[in-house]
Amino acid sequence: MNLIKLENLRKTYQVGLQCVNALAGVDLEVDKGEFLSIMGHSGSGKSTLMNIIGMLDVPTSGNYFFENENVARFNEDKLTAIRRRKIGFVFQQYNLLPRMNAVKQVMAPLMYQGVPRKEREERAIKALELVGLKDRIKSKPNELSGGQQQRVSIARAIVASPDIILADEPTGALDSRTGEEIMGIFKKLNDKGHTIIIITHEDNIAALTKRNIRIKDGLLL
Hints:
Layout: E1 2-15, E2 18-31, E3 35-39, H1 46-53, E4 61-66, E5 69-70, H2 76-86, E6 87-91, H3 102-111, H4 117-130, H5 146-158, E7 164-168, H6 176-191, E8 195-200, H7 203-206, E9 211-216, E10 219-220
Parallel strand pairs: 3-8, 3-9, 6-7, 7-8
Antiparallel strand pairs: 1-2, 1-4, 4-5, 9-10
Helix pairs in contact: 3-4, 3-5, 4-5
């Protein structure tokens, strides 16, 4: 079953007097439960594509269907609701708050969903256990290694049990061994039914996913 379907998706930016085609007509289908990587060099359009899939940006033209509904028809409230309930984001720079310990970092998305505090904490601890941080739930970012910080950001992304996890260069700031450990966590999450899309420029990371797509000059190859 299609979770995501993109038809002739285009994104154009105005840079001074010049038009830049970040996406030049992308067609893509992603089924529920896939483990997919989108690979390309800097400037290829891969992050723009992720932002549109994650409903953080809108295309200039073309169609985007999410669960068979046209995203163009969604108002901002519905877009926000879908992002909170159905999409988890993992970024290269972790985006953790420096004064907040791991369990509070992971609890934060549930607060916006109105989940009671006790349940928020229980679910956050369970998510941290899933990524191997059972003994570091009270640690702040400056007390954690880069790999551990990325594990916290993954726990934060999955705590609301989203249908899809979007990871933009999730191993880019990590050494190769730690990067492979992080990819192992994504594989376990995929085995549990999560749809996972990894944005990367690294061949060895793309090779660890079940399907690999390359993007160049705003087009899928």
